[in-house]
Amino acid sequence: MELCYMPAHELSRLLRERKVSAIELTDAVFSRIDAVEDKVKAYLLLLREEARSQARAVDAALAAKEELPPLAGIPLAVKDNLCMAGVETTCASKILKGFIPPYDATVIERLKEQRVVFTGKTNMDEFAMGSSTENSGFYPTANPWDLERVPGGSSGGSAAAVAAGEAVAALGSDTGGSIRQPAAFCGVVGMKPTYGLVSRYGLVAFASSLDQIGPITRDVRDCALVLNAIAGHDPRDSTSAPQDVPDYTEFLVPDIKGFRIGIPREYIAEGTAPAVRDVLAEAVHLLTSMGAMVEETSLPHVRYSLPTYYLIAPAEASSNLARYDGVRYGLRVEGEDVVAMYKKTRNRGFGPEVKRRIMLGTYALSAGYYDAYYLKALKVRTLIRRDFDAAFERFDLILSPTTPTPAFKMGEKVDDPLAMYLSDICTLAVNLAGLPGLSIPGGFAGNLPVGIQLIGPPFTEGRLLRVAYAFEREAGVAAKRPALEGGQNG
Amino acid sequence: MGNYESVIGLEIHAELKTESKIFCSSSARFGGEPNAHICPVCLGLPGVLPVLNKKVVEYAIRAALALNCEIARFCKFDRKNYYYPDLPKNYQISQYDLPLAQHGFLEIDTENGRKRIGITRIHMEEDAGKLVHQGTVTTTPYSLVDYNRTGVPLLEIVSEPDMRSPEEARAYAEKLRSIIQFTGISDCKMEEGSLRVDANVSVRPLGSKEFGVKTEIKNVNSFRALQRALAYEIERQIAVLEEGGEIVQETRTWDEGNGATLTLRSKEEAHDYRYFPEPDLPPLVITREWVEEIRRGLPELPDARRERYMSEYGLPAYDAAVLTITREIGDYFEACVRLYPHPKTVSNWVMGELARLLNATNTEITDSPVKPEQVAALLKLIDEGVISGKIAKTVFEEMFRTGKDPQLVVKEQGLVQITDEAELKAVVDEIIAANPKVVADYRQGKDKALGFLVGQVMKATKGKANPALVNRLLKEGMKT
């Protein structure tokens, strides 16, 4: 197998056995980038020289027989809303063009301790607002399985990079499905951890009460390895959970006998594509054959996820994005006075979806509307959480499609925000309830990957990984590779 | 005022003197080079998160207890959204519907005795930075921003509309400053902006139960300005009503130079702050154990100290009040009394000579060049008859100027009192011989004449003569 398509845990072994060097691996990934990046456009910024020097340092350490962490030397891509000291961080927004943070996000700091090789910053929907990466302020990213289709979003660049062999693993962020939906569209593994498991320090905020950073990887074991590296309490994030984290690889045993799995009927609604239903049915069949008990259940309030989410997330975003005003960093468009400068800067710097959500959020928080919108949404959020609590009294975890359809065509939904929002319908409630959600490849609809989502109670990432690991071994879906064809570039 | 009554409530912001800022580890100290006390967190750079400084909560609880408030068991932070270049996130982390403390009070002295002023609420928030304009705000070609103050912890203390005159408002503000200052959590210096006062004021016909339309006055930079601004505003409102007009709800600014309040912005221009719970900070749970621990550590507060000065030291009410305006004045006084246990004499000196020289040189009592032990030593010199009370004032001025001990000043300047009877007798005899007419007056019973002669002796001895001895010698010398 080509190096750039091998999972991190295998590469880690090869590095340790000195069968491959870190610089060879890094060069292999960058050769792949050189070969396909003009079609995929997964990256906003490449860190070729920095990556090569990090790789050489790992090789030197290996030669000196140093004890190295599991992810040492692994080429990993980072979504461009994660701050890396000295590296431009734009959130794919013109308003942050030129912003170079003077500090590392906690997850970056932890991956640096792992001696990961950073390949670059990946494309995304501007400020993580979108489901197709078409809202990037710079250019869209293509789905490696069909270049005419979107990779999903907002972490589309990260998912596409892993799928196309342009990175071995990646970090994304997930506010309403932004890791899981692109992972499903690109046929890779993506996890949104429990709210509070991974520090948000250094993640440019979209909606603070919903945002989580998580891994996008080739397989379930890699997901556990990256999660091991990034999870755990951080005193710089007051919402990070003050508890110890286990070694997630210890959960990876292929035994799910007696697991009780619920399938909420609300997740298989009218808009669900037949091919997606088929993949889910096959998955149920497989899990049952492995000894799990699968039953239908109901989460009555999840049908309010979309309106609830589109009040809470924009409300927080309207405040979080207020700081981009041209005063201190990033874009500034001069005006006759300071208010004119604010208006011109924000008008030119933000794209239409970001403006739409700022307006939605500002409205929802305005005097006279707060109770009817924002406060009501908070109450529904509690009801949604209680639905899950009730379900988890009967089930160990919940299974659903990750998305109602496979990857859609570029341009198909850009003029219909509501249709675009509906592509996150299966993932939103997980963020509202603060739960862990894991999307793994479940099968195919033609040549397009279809993801299935596992949801568990808070801090049961280990349980999700165990079931996913067992399923992955039996289903054998991960073996297929994208063709990188189709579309005008193909 | 005539047939009107004014209704006043105050909103006071006090900066807490913690080591670090409220949500990051940058220094919270006043001053410094512009933008020296900053970090990514207080600058609100993309991706950073606030972490609450526990000391701020402790200080806030201390103030709340000193002001007789109920401390919430559960409170939270909220975002107050508005755009201004000195506010890097364009929202201020504050507390909205669940503040730290509520339902407190303090007591002021009025013409009609003690009066209780209610405190509605106390909450914690972060301060904003400072804009430096080139000239005035309207003509400046550009402005500079100093973020040193950004994120310095603030307490906002809101009173009930319980004050009925500018004097009461001033008494409340001064009392609040005393109490806060006693708890040691804030310097409360209006000139450095560590204490800021905004006033809400309305007027209504005497006997009316309903409130009139209020205006808010900002930019009062001293207690005197507060009183003047309120007096002006009350008169202005009454004049408007007398002419049949209506008060407009608005924010006004105090123009110290012109002695007038001016419209700053109308109610229509008021912000919609779009408060919502701060998602980056979990709610704050305050245990009763913690509150009690803080209560046990509270220092003696101004009212209690004033009572003690009256009962323990027998000081008059006026002295006790003046000596308890700040904790430092009282501490100074007590340090003197410990070494020289005559409280009223010490009080006279601290409130008199010392206060006069401190004021004249704009010096804080903690920086006084004359230390309590030196005051005590000086007072002992008087008692021992080494110097007279009059000379002592000269000595004290020199001590204040140079920081020298009183014994040294007396010695260097040859100010030791003349108590040698033979030496003084010679002077007295000379004075008696030189003033036959005055001596005759004295002998005819004019007591004033004696005073004149004492003065002459003092003049001849440059004030060094022991006054009691001079008196005796003069009387003896003029006996017929």
List keywords for this structure.
heterodimer; A: 490 residues; alpha/beta; eleven-stranded mixed β-sheet; 11 strands; B: 480 residues; alpha+beta; nine-stranded mixed β-sheet
Task: Give the structure's gist in a few sentences.
The complex is a heterodimer of chains A (490) and B (480). Chain A has 490 residues and is α/β, with parallel strands linked by helices.
Biggest interface, residues from each chain: A-B, 44 and 29 residues
Question: Which parts of chain B are unreliable, with pLDDT below 50 for 5 consecutive residues or more?
Answer: none
State the major sheet of chain A. 11 strands, mixed
Q: Going across the major beta sheet of chain A, what is the strand order?
A: 1-3-2-4-6-5-10-11-9-7-8
User: Which class best fits the helix and strand makeup of chain A?
Assistant: alpha/beta
Beta-strand content estimate of chain A: 5-15%
Q: Strand order, main sheet of chain B: write it out.
A: 2-6-7-10-1-11-12-13-14
Helical element count of chain B?
15
Distance between the termini of chain A: 23 Å
Radius of gyration of chain A: 21 Å
The biggest sheet of chain B, with number of strands, parallel, antiparallel or mixed sense and barrel status, is: 9 strands, mixed
Average pLDDT of chain B, to the nearest integer?
92
How many strand units of chain B?
16
Q: What is the share of helical residues of chain B?
A: 25-40%
| Overall mean pLDDT of chain A | 95
Total beta strands of chain A: 11
Gross morphology of chain A is globular
Oligomer: heterodimer
